[in-house]
Design goal:
By secondary structure, the protein is of the alpha+beta class. It has one domain (20-306): Sulfite Oxidase, Chain A, domain 2 (Alpha-Beta Complex). It has 8 helices and 13 strands. The strands form 2 sheets. Strands 1, 4, 5, 8, 9, 10, 12 and 13 form an 8-stranded mixed beta sheet that branches. The chain has a 5-stranded mixed beta sheet with strand order 3-2-11-6-7. Strand 12 and strand 13 form a beta hairpin. The chain is globular.
Length: 315
């Protein structure tokens, strides 16, 4: 095989040897996953193992045609600090998370809010496969075939009032099953937020699976947000509350380190993290780094949301 020289290659562009040689040797299973999110999944037991197929998933036109990241990498290399700060901790510890019964409260400035069983929340929606890029602030990325439905369809269903300007999301707070919450690494429960127009954008989804299978606990079961043009930490996992509010919410990472993690958190290669460059990224499974794309490659779809906004100040 012929390899072409890369004149601007640096040692930092090469995949860490340990990760490259042993990336298939992570845990292959991760305990209990949850029953999915449509009526057809009602028969799947709450303790269903990772890999339970989700039936009747439609293909979505909102998908990239890039090669997919492998299941084993997606499910063993995760940021989910509720289970620990190491990338392998979620796969090791998330199996203890009980995901049935599970309810999501939708409240705030809405006409038809309430507390919904997660399956009832999802039941009215046609589940779709959305193949999205995921770019994490640390510089690594994946291509993931999510299974979910547009967040906008849920928000429309609960009828936001004229006072609703932002959407605040809250993660489960259960230290008995989420050992990372026993430490003060972040302020628990984890909180994130979007502007209402960002939340209503067709690319914003609530995911209940990946690779056509039930969403594993370590990936945010039973229901999580996916906003593909923002850094991964904005796509909050294991959601228990969705609140329509009139003031801009302050996310967990913004609360912890506001100089490093702003409210918008759009993927922008021109705005460096204070401790590293965001201009390049390493796709898991690839050897060399690649150039980071503005808005993670979704500029054509979402740039109009930020017309007139200084993206260096509003990072």
């Amino acid at each position: 095989m012929l390899l072409k020289a890369a004149p601007d290659l640096r040692w930092s562009d090469v995949t860490d040897e340990r990760l490259y040689l042993h990336r298939r040797d992570f845990m292959r299973t991760a305990g209990a996953a949850v029953a999915g999110a449509a009526a057809a999944l009602a028969s799947v037991p709450a303790a269903a193992q990772t890999g339970t197929p989700i039936p009747n998933v439609a293909k979505s036109r909102f998908s990239t045609d890039e090669p997919l990241t492998e299941w084993d990498d997606i499910t063993t290399y995760n940021n989910f600090w509720e289970f620990g700060i190491d990338k392998g901790d979620p796969a090791k510890h998330a199996g203890r998370l009980t995901t049935r019964p599970w309810t999501v409260t939708v409240d705030g400035h809405v006409a038809k809010g309430g507390e919904f069983a997660v399956d009832d929340l999802v039941k009215p929606h046609q589940l779709e496969e959305r193949i999205y890029r995921l770019r994490c602030v640390e510089g690594w990325s994946m291509v993931i075939p999510w299974v979910g439905f547009p967040l906008a369809s849920l928000l429309t269903r609960v009828e936001p009032t004229s006072k609703a300007a932002f959407v605040r999301f809250t993660t489960l707070n259960r230290p008995t099953e989420m050992p990372g919450q026993r430490r003060g690494a972040l302020s628990w429960p984890y909180v994130e937020g979007l502007r209402l127009d960002e939340a209503m954008h067709p690319l914003s989804i609530l995911a209940v699976g990946l690779y056509g299978r039930v969403l594993p606990n370590q990936n945010g079961a039973p229901i999580r947000l996916v906003v593909p043009w923002k850094y991964g930490f904005k796509s909050i996992k294991s959601i228990v509350r969705i609140s329509l509010v009139d003031k801009q919410p302050r996310g967990a990472w913004e609360e912890a380190q506001p100089s490093e993690y702003g409210f918008y958190s759009n993927v922008n290669p021109e705005v460096d993290h204070p401790r590293w460059s965001q201009a390049r990224e390493r796709r898991i499974g690839e050897f060399f780094k690649r150039r980071t794309l503005m808005f993670n490659g979704y500029a054509d779809q979402v740039a109009g949301l930020y017309t007139g906004l200084d993206l260096r100040k509003n990072y």
